[in-house]
Design brief:
Layout (H helix, E strand, L loop, with lengths): L2 H9 L6 H6 L3 E5 L2 E6 L3 H10 L1 E5 L4 E6 L3 H8 L13 E7 L5 E9 L3 E6 L4 H11 L5 E4 L4 E7 L3 H9 L11 E6 L3 E6 L8 E7 L3 H9 L4 E3 L2 H10 L34 H9 L4 E8 L9 E4 L7 E8 L6 E8 L8 E6 L2 E8 L8
Parallel strand pairs: 3-13
Antiparallel strand pairs: 1-2, 3-9, 4-7, 4-8, 5-6, 6-7, 9-12, 10-11, 11-12, 14-17, 14-19, 15-16, 15-18, 16-17, 18-19
Length: 370
């Protein structure tokens, strides 16, 4: 390892499960400022385990914020695009966006109503930016705290995920409905918050525990023979197959919700949030570029590859997210392309090392669970 590589590794943060990953022989790599597991047994095997049985993912690098106080809901209504009236029931959750004054996406988030307070889960790379943005606007009546360092998060995803969690939680526990959260005492000793959310397109949960309890949770889960540890590689192919957007690839601070295909997270009946005027204006006058979904029968598109609309000499855009789909056996990708001329069914080409390979624009998602 070179001196520069040693310094990079030394600068990376580690989750409470780092030693568990190393003990399992995981391939580790930098991601969002953390040293994270990319794969264990191999991407294909881990992807298939998630689709067929249970895959567990360390997502403790994500940020967690709590907001309390009488004005917390009104504050979040102003800061976030989605309508918090929809999660007034304790335990409800929703996907949402936080925009800047120009309508660009600061981050995509999940907000949970945990009863008298709100829990926000943010992307790891945006944690400091998100917290600072919220802190710059928070009124005196609302308390905002960053609980990321003392919180660990493990995703348990797949057809048998609820079976595994239910066995750990005991017969008195009832699984939350989709996009809801409740409490559990795993193995009668380990307190946890269990959210019926995930990033794979499979049913499953995300389990919040204290950082100190993360290794015990991880080992409990791996005691089930049907459970496999899964790295970020298969997490990415799983989310891309079902067209879940990735911040930093499919959207960032240069894109608006309408450009990114996330207008559905910005209800037309809601106004008054930061960036709302830009969203409304783009609904009336659609932007020139939008995120499209691409399928290639004989190519594996990768981030940064140039995309050409059929017959065009100049590239129309570049691949944002791209991979081989382990489930479908084809190449799948996203790219920002001219809105006109790239509707579903439109033929196009991707340049792979100087050779153009044909594909087409398709309607999302690529994969739908039977």
């Amino acid at each position: 390892m070179s001196t520069d590589e040693q310094q990079l590794t030394a600068d990376l943060k580690r989750t409470p499960l780092y030693e568990e990953h190393v003990a399992l022989g995981a391939k580790m790599a930098p991601f969002a400022g953390y040293e994270m597991p990319i794969e264990y047994a191999g991407l294909i095997a881990e992807h298939q385990a998630t689709r067929s049985t249970v895959g567990i993912f360390d997502v403790s690098h994500m940020g967690e914020f709590r907001l309390t106080g009488d004005g917390a809901k009104d504050f979040l209504q102003h800061m976030l695009t989605n309508n918090l009236d929809r999660i007034d029931e304790v335990g409800a959750a929703q996907y949402t966006l936080m925009l800047d004054d120009e309508g660009h996406i600061i981050d995509d988030l999940i907000v949970y109503n945990t009863g008298g307070e709100y829990l926000i889960v943010a992307n790891a790379a945006n944690r400091d930016t998100d917290f600072a943005w919220l802190g710059d606007h928070v009124p005196a009546t609302v308390a905002l705290s960053d609980e990321s360092e003392r919180t660990a998060l493990v995703a348990v995803q797949g057809p048998k995920a609820l079976q595994v969690i239910s066995e750990l939680a005991g017969p008195e526990w009832t699984a939350p409905e989709r996009f809801c959260i409740n409490e559990a005492l795993l193995q009668e000793t380990l307190p946890a918050l269990i959210a019926r959310t995930g990033y794979t397109g499979e049913d499953g949960v995300e389990v919040f525990v204290r950082s100190a309890d993360a290794p015990a949770l991880w080992r409990l889960l791996l005691s089930f023979p049907e459970v496999s540890p899964v790295g970020l590689g298969a997490r990415d192919t799983s989310r891309l197959e079902v067209c879940y957007s990735l911040y930093g690839s499919d959207m960032d601070r240069s894109r608006t919700p309408i450009e990114a295909g996330l207008g559905w997270v910005c209800p037309k009946t809601k106004s008054g949030y930061i960036g709302a005027d830009v969203v409304a204006a783009q609904r009336e006058n659609p932007p020139a570029e939008v995120l499209r979904h691409l399928r290639f029968e004989r190519a594996i598109p990768r981030h940064g590859y140039e995309v050409f609309l059929e017959g065009a000499p100049a590239p129309a855009g570049v691949i944002a997210s791209g991979s081989h789909s382990p489930t479908l056996g084809v190449g799948i990708a996203t790219a920002y392309l001219p809105r006109e001329g790239s509707k579903p069914g439109a033929p196009l080409e991707v340049d792979i090392r100087g050779r153009r390979v044909g594909g087409e624009v398709v309607k999302p998602p690529f994969y739908v669970k039977d």
